[in-house]
Amino acid sequence: MEDQTPTIGVGHRVSHILYYWLPPLLWVGLMTLSSRLSFRDGAPDWVSGRDKLVHAVYFGGFALLLLRSLRGHLRWHWKFASLAAFLFTVGYGGWDEYQQGFDPNRMRDIGDFIADVIGALSVFAVALLTRLLPPSAPSPSPPSPCDV
């Protein structure tokens, strides 16, 4: 008797992996590139005074994309996926701040790391809250012509 299990082609598997993992890889590449830039004359005008907000958005976005990948591709339970995305993002933020201390034009900043954690934590909190909220009531269907 032949195996009747449906198979998924290699092309479909590759596109599925790219769909879920390319966005966080590109995002972390953007974060890494911007972290490596050294601004000898200070930060550009669009960052000046908003440094912590930029950190929170970068790392919150990274946590969100990781959460999407862990839930969508690996099918992890939302609690485990949320926690893993949070911990990985915080770990990357800590590593990023640590390694900046080796660049003579950069410095380690605990405030940046705290902003990274807040960005990642906000994604974790939203994931948790959306799971705890009761489901919305179904919207009423419009009356059919037979009901009138």
Describe the structure.
With 148 residues, the protein is mostly helical. It is built from 4 helices and no strands. It has a domain of 93 residues. The chain is globular and about 75 Å long.
Summary keywords:
globular; 148 residues; 4 helices; 64% helix; mainly alpha; single chain
SSE layout and pairing:
Elements lengths: L9 H27 L14 H22 L5 H23 L9 H23 L16
Helix pairs in contact: 1-2, 2-3, 2-4, 3-4
Portion in helices: 55-70%
Uncertain spans: none
- As a whole number of angstroms, the C-alpha radius of gyration is 21 Å
Share of residues in strands: under 5%
Beginning-to-end CA distance, first to last residue: 57 Å
Give a quick account of the main beta sheet: strands, pairing sense, barrel closure. none
Summarize the structure.
The protein has a domain at 21-31 and 51-132. Helix 2 runs antiparallel to helix 3 (78-100).
